[in-house]
Specification:
alpha+beta; 8-stranded antiparallel beta sheet; globular
Amino acid sequence: MKRICLLIFIILAPLLCAAQQIMYANLDALVEGRGDTVTILKVEKRAKGQLFLTGGADYRIEAEGNRGLSRYLRRRCYAVQVDTQLFVNCRKMRYKRFRLGGWYAPAFRVGKNVYYSAQPVGQVAASTATPPNAVRLGGDVGSALAASGLVHARVYYELDTASGKSYFVGKERMAELLAAYPDLQEKLMQETSESAGVIGKYLYLLREREDAKSNLK
């Protein structure tokens, strides 16, 4: 009996894996869960050198042996689900008038919205990349150093699934999201950074609380 079960698992394993790779063509498809299932996606963490030279998000997603599908993933695909991990295409994301570069950023859902970690741009870059008391260098050298620091800096953005717009998640917005959990709000107010590492911690705690609340209903 055990051998039969093992044989069935071996036969079904490729199908189970395939079901975990889903491409979403646009925002509506992501919201409604209407995606195309594939089996040949390859997720690769981009090296620091690649990030420095070309910028963009942290993950490259391509279709092995299929140049046409790889091109679609780079230019047109909106989001990809691989196993339990969601990725959004930063080519499709905007923060105000600023582009967030190419490739894919890790993301997750909390309630109706999606939160993703990407490079700070615009006013977010100015307010989060450099500590207020840091020495700032002027001219081209100072600009180059600031830009190089931003390559590896990450903050969280909130993707409003109703409008498709992205909003920066700093301490102020995070406090609003934690309105129902004053204990977490109090801990948040003690933080001195709005980086993805800090804000992400509270987003995950929020998701845990919300999931637990839903399970009690």
